[in-house]
Design brief:
Oligomer: homodimer
Helix content of chain A: 55-70%
Largest sheet of chain A: 3 strands, mixed
Largest interface: A-B, 113 and 114 residues
Radius of gyration of chain A: 29 Å
Strand order of the largest sheet of chain A: 1-2-3
CATH superfamily of the largest domain in chain A: SLC41 divalent cation transporters, integral membrane domain
Number of domains of chain A: 3
Number of helices of chain A: 21
Distance between the termini of chain A: 87 Å
Number of strands of chain A: 6
Mean pLDDT of chain A: 90
Strand content of chain A: 5-15%
CATH architecture of the largest domain in chain A: Orthogonal Bundle
CATH topology of the largest domain in chain A: Tetracycline Repressor, domain 2
Structural class of chain A: mainly alpha
CATH class of the largest domain in chain A: Mainly Alpha
């Protein structure tokens, strides 16, 4: 009897599910994490690994020998294991593959062919295929002999040569008379996904059609696996993380609880890039030092002009990048978007030109300064929304990820436009 | 024969699925949208509606009479219909309810009790409940009499009084001998979700446990419905949209293809708030006009100091807000986070203080100006990461959504800190 304390290893393995354990490990600084990890029963470690985020999982695997990895991961689903192996140094993953039972090895090796971010990388090979010319009774008898995963929702119908032909939902099977032929109740609405299809495309198919699982075929249309919604949800969340964290130059695979030195390194590059852009804007401003020395109000008001452009531009940029990710905004409606955004720029530009002009009159008692800042605001907001619309398309054509670099490029543009228009107009008309 | 052209109405109803139609409508400016909508077969309109985003759907419903709404929505799932009714003016939704067949009405009215963003608002009432003391054979016979939805993956086990007791996956039912009792094969790992649980909490449960459906119970533990993964995926995507679009002051429910006037209104408030914060920063800067008039370099370098703080702070802010959303960052590890971020601030602050100080020496040939800017960079980056850590917690305690207002408050803080430290130190030491 340990008095009021629950022994930590009992607490760990009995009171918390593997999902809770994974979440707990992810919410813990790295030193404490290694300590907690050592308390997890070896039989549960593999399961916990499959729920951890990439960086943390690879760090834990990195401390194991190939033998321990094989031991720990023996109950992990083959698609998860393939992902882990793809992220290990080749000498370790090769050694792990050699040590695996040959059945498991050939299954995993089949999956390693496909990059992690394709349908093939997402799929599992636990498909149950049936033929269209058999009866419900035959299928039920066949299923009874198998070990079915709890997540099985569909059977796939194939021809003699394993070409995908259609699907049959389990509830349909349960409510149909025993002598009905599968061909009469199968559905053909679910199309097979090519193994090399991009994972974002897979996510869009699942979202739009509310699928729970989908068949994956190779180049010849032969059924080779199935993708389940849980893996698609992971893709959706990773994409969202990428969009959200990418805007701040962060990587969605990084450990949130990395120590200060590691975190500083992760973030330093982004700060450096932004410093460079800030100095570009500063260099533009410095061309007008003589004007500023004469009218100090220009120094005070310049950041206001730059910031209004930055906000207007980033609203458009965010809308366009998100619209591209969901597939709503494409080249086919780009010209409509440009016109609409130009309309927004003119309307909001005029509105805030009047407001900021009025504030400037009240503050600095100068009508000509107010006119200059109003003109600069209008021009800068229009340029900003145009840049925000075009930039994602230009970056995408250049194979640059707009979610990562869009905002920093846009801010540089709006700062430079802002300083140039405001200080340029001021130099021309006020001095 | 219409020659080379496919008649538009045939194309619409035969070649495109309802999902494709909904996506097409969402990707179209509002005028064209009404035109396309009129070509969709009335029997498909209801289905298309259920796949559209809120604003567009309500706009289309707003143009129909209560009678037409009842007609169009008769095949829509009850949870989707309840959501639509909750967003209509009360006089319309009451009229629609009155016109509905009484069975459907009482089902929908049961759902209207729960707010849209709770488990009750997400759930459907199409549950299949069985008792634990019957055999597999009895269940199979019972199911054969029902009309099961294709998406059914689990049966729920309840007691005599409908209290939730456990779950039974369909594959398990198919592979178990006919005379086995349900109690022996049911699972108790899936816990019931309270009808008033927040939808984000529901999404976390689904994510962590890789669920396809989950039972919903009322306050007495009585099974009243089930939530399916497709509705949870919508919640996950809406939350991601909210985080991504919210940072730019945009609403995830707005129509991406709204006309310019509507879009301008949607975005004007955010521009106004940001203008106010830009003027706060400008007011701080204007207190130092005398210093700037003497050393114009201060005007050129001030935005650099403010922007480095802004970037460092927003990196921390993004990380913390995202960590709070995923449940990794909580009050319990806040103090660790503060120390870690302070470490990051000191490391990156020192690094960029040295770099920016060196650039300043080269540019302006002034060692004292370089020292002042270096000190300001260090102080501002440290204050920025601290603000970025604490702000989301403070906002959350005040019931303000950090995803919406976090970045604008943070930027105001870092601008003000930046101008104050840099111009303050310069005034104290350089003049």
């Amino acid at each position: 009897d340990s008095g009021n304390f629950v022994p930590i290893d009992r607490l760990f393995n009995e009171e918390l599910s593997v999902v809770d354990l994974a979440h707990l490990l992810e919410s813990t600084p790295s030193k404490v994490r290694m300590f907690l990890w050592s308390f997890i029963d070896e039989i549960h470690q593999g399961d916990v690994l499959s729920y951890l985020n990439d960086e943390i999982r690879q760090a834990l695997l990195g401390k194991m020998s190939a033998e321990e990895i094989v031991e720990t991961t023996q109950d992990i689903e083959s698609d998860d294991l393939a992902d882990m192996l793809q992220q290990m140094p080749p000498e370790v993953s090769n050694r792990v593959l050699q040590l695996m039972p040959s059945d498991d090895r050939s299954e995993v090796e089949g999956l390693l062919v496909y990059p992690e971010d394709t349908a093939g990388g997402l799929m599992n090979t636990d498909v149950v295929a049936i033929r269209a010319d058999v009866t419900v009774e035959t299928v039920l008898r066949y299923l009874r002999k198998l070990e079915l995963p709890d997540s099985l929702d569909m059977l796939w119908v194939t021809d003699r040569d394993s070409h995908y032909k259609g699907s049959l939902a389990l509830p349909r099977l349960l409510t149909t008379a025993a002598d009905v032929t599968i061909a009469d109740i199968m559905s053909t609405t679910i199309k097979a996904i090519d193994a090399y299809a991009d994972e974002e495309h897979v996510a869009q198919i699942f979202e739009r059609q509310d699928l729970i699982s989908a068949p994956v075929v190779n180049g010849e249309g032969i059924l080779i696996g199935r993708i389940t919604i849980d893996d698609v949800v992971d893709v959706i969340i990773e994409n969202a993380d990428h969009s959200i964290l990418g805007m701040a130059g962060l990587d969605e695979e990084d450990d949130v609880f990395a120590p200060a030195i590691k975190s500083s390194q992760d973030r330093a590059v982004w700060l450096g890039i932004n410093m460079a852009t800030a100095f570009i804007a500063a260099a533009v401003m410095s061309r007008f030092e003589a004007s500023i020395a004469e009218i100090v109000a220009l120094a005070v008001l310049s950041p206001v002009v730059a910031s209004m452009g930055g906000i207007a531009g980033s609203q458009t940029l965010t809308l366009i990048i998100r619209g591209m990710a969901t597939g709503h905004v494409t080249r086919s409606n780009l010209s409509w978007m440009i016109l609409r955004e130009l309309g927004v720029g003119l309307i909001n530009g005029s509105l805030w030109a009047i407001v900021i002009g009025s504030i400037t009159v009240i503050w600095y008692h100068s009508f000509s300064l107010a006119l200059v800042i109003a003109a600069a605001i209008l021009v800068n907001i229009c340029l900003a929304v145009l840049s925000g619309t075009l930039l994602p398309f230009i970056l995408k054509s250049a194979k640059i990820d707009p979610a990562l670099s869009g905002s920093v490029i846009l801010t540089t543009l709006t700062d430079v436009f802002g300083f140039l228009t405001f200080l340029g107009l001021a130099t021309a008309f006020l001095l």
